[in-house]
Fold:
Amino acid sequence: MSIRPLRNAQPAKAASVLLMPKTRALNYADELEAQKAAWDRKPALRSVYHSWYERIRNSLSPVGATVEIGAGSSNFTEFYPEVIATDVINAGKWLNCLADARDLPFGENSLGNIVMVDALHHLPRPFELLRDATSALQPGGRLILLEPAATPWARLVLGLFHHEPVDLKQDVFGEDGTPPPANEGFTFANQAFADLLFVRSPGETLRRVPGLNLVKVERSDFVVYPATGGLSYFCLVPARLASGLQRLEAKLVRRTGKLTAMRLLVVLEKQADEPGR
Structure:
């Protein structure tokens, strides 16, 4: 599969929607339109995301080019213009090329970093992505994932206010290698994937993806992020207070994160070649 560059292609059409927290979009294009609208009208939300993006940037490997998979409405691209932005549909002029996370179109040892923000949990068979990413990364290159946590607090908040499920009972390991389900409109989601793979069973995950090391799993966020309403219609946090409140709650999450964290930053690194090989 080759990379499909975007030149004069028209963006995917989307119906005009305003998503409420528990509303499920009919397709990915509708979801992106609502997300972009929320991003534009919520400076407090942008402040939260920028803190996440700063942590992602600080985790990047220097060995090669950085590609974002599932770039969506371009939020990371605005923060880090050097990134090569890709998505499965032509979401807008900010994308550099089309790329399907279920079958990455990058050559072996061709990338320094692969960044995914809230994209892994939309893949019914996440091990396919992990293996493709390992192949595409150069030795020392990194796969950086920002995903929902599945702590008790996160499950409560997401269950009340988010339309995507948090299913800790899904047998993600038993399903590895089986045919994926139909995913019309790219609407599949399980927000528990990062927890299942990298918190509860990291050893089994790495056993199935030879050549990949787990550098860190970092918990963050408690009240400020959900109080912004996320990429939905409400926001309870004044923009001028968002950064200060985040710094305060970061100290709390360092002690209580296993129970209260809303987000996980997962950094994986491809093993360096052995000497003489």
